[in-house]
Fold this sequence. Notes:
- The protein is of the alpha/beta class.
- Helix content is 42%, strand content 14%.
- The strands form three sheets. Strands 7-6-8-9-11-10-15 form a seven-stranded mixed β-sheet, with helices on both faces. The protein has a five-stranded parallel β-sheet with strand order 1-2-3-5-4, with helices on both faces.
- Helix 22 (459-471) links the parallel strand 10 and strand 11 (477-480).
Amino acid sequence: MTTSACSDPPALGPLLAAIHSPADVKRLADDELVKLAAEIRNSLITSLSRTGGHLGPNLGVVELTIALHRVFSTPTDSLVFDVAHQGYVHKMLTGRAPLIHTIRTFQGLNGFLLRSESPHDAYGAGHAGTALSAALGIAAARDLAGGTNHVVAIAGDAAFTCGPTLEALNNIAETTRNFIVVLNDNEWSIDKNVGAIARYFNALQTHSTYAAVRGKAAEFVEKLAGKAVRSLAHKVEESAKNLLFPNVLFEKFGLRYYGPIDGHDLRLLIRTFEHLKTLHEPVVLHIITEKGRGYQPALDNPGKFHGLGAYKLEDGSTNHTNTPTCSEIFGRTLTDIAKTDPKIVAITAAMPGGTKLDIFKSEVPERYFDVGIAEEHAALFAAGLAAKGFRPFVAIYSTFMQRAYDMIIHDIALQNLPVRLCMDRGGLSGDDGPTHHGLFDIGFLRIIPGLVHMQPKDENEFADMLHTMAAYDAGPSAIRYPRGPIRGTQLKPTPQILEIGKAELVADGSDVALIGLGTLFEMAEHTKTLLEAMGLSVALINPRFIKPLDTALLETYATKCRVLCTFEDHVLTNGFGSAVIEHLHSAGIHTPVERIGWPDAFIQHGPPDTLRALHGLTPAHAASLVARHFESTKPL
């Protein structure tokens, strides 16, 4: 694997350096495993200080991952990690420790698990709530093939607020008799967990009787093995069950429940897994872990250290910029609007920090709702609010909005409810890679009847569009905006309401019209400069609206100019450029349209500028596509 990471990677500890496969973990003495855990934590803290990444989640699963590889044998046995952002330790124990310093860098290790990266990665994902269903499918395949290997699904407590997880729980006992679920309970997803299930797990953790029983578990495991482990687990189970809930949730689904146990006690974890692998019934092992364990800044601020950029080793501080991100502008602007409009409601799906709705939460708490990792529910919940006259804004990353697609069509658009869909990370998401790139929302939204979809060219226009959405009650609307800032434009004091479907003509021209959508408007500007240097007359259009298109302006310049060129931070298939071509065809206008956008492929992780250059999203490439239409008639 080629990498672009630093040329002087941090040195690995001697035990970690000797781990070339999980078999090496099995050869270590018991007392060496604790030392290995310390070396792994040191390597993670040091390496990620340079590259950034999901530090907190991985620090919390060090002992768990060591125990899994001590007891089970991948790739014969399958470990399926929910989201897989906590899979760095798994990567390190499966031969990739020397490359951990390349995590999330261009051509380096991916920040999530990938089947194409290693045979030890049984399943790749980047969205929450997928592990149990995928692992159950793997287990069913094993059963159909007559296999005896083990399948373990590892999911955080936040994943149990997610619809697919509950749907999988409903099918496990009916599907297989050999299945292990590890519930990694640390009270956090990206932000603090919310909802009834989260409160139940938290109550279990904090109850004094549970604390006493868990303490005894560590003592008993020194003396007991085999059946005694099962007996101990039942004692813990019964104590918690009798105190906190009439029936254990999981046993109602037909899964035997064990725990909760200390997820950082290596000896206890190993003995427990050794017992669980002998059973012939689906089981849940509930472990308690500490997100960020071993690094005080991560313990002090779990939300920040869930996933972050480079930081200073000594105190975990990160570089601060005075340029507000689009998320910050969204949170601040929507909060200000809500203070003047009592019908405005804000909804997030477990991401108040990422979407910056934490600003709204602190200032308008009575109209703020965090529904947990439940995007489908978020959309339906918003539909209900809109049906009763409220103006809900649903802030979900573009890549996660995909999960709510049925609800957007069936419940929102079909009923013409004025729900506002706000898609953060619309466009390339850089270091997080293909699971997080927001490159498909134009395609899946523009086909929906009656939905208004827009994207701003700068921060001022972003604020204008949010005010426009707040005032628009005729039906559903959506806005896409990038991670980070757009252009760093300082906000004007008074936003304006935009005319729906009206583009902005920035510059007139008669040879070529460049139509730059959103974050790529600046690329269109640079392309204009290159083409004008070739002697061409160039019009520049900021479309503002993906749907409805400004068809009058589009037809004017398609008739006036020899060629059009569209720019979009989205796949070209069924994208904005496709919408332009479709309209011109319907209007009987045959002016050629060149398109700049992402190819029909899943784009790897890396710096946006590097990836754009790799795939031809550059002013030079755009200018070359346009210039070829004039090669025979104009001296260039």
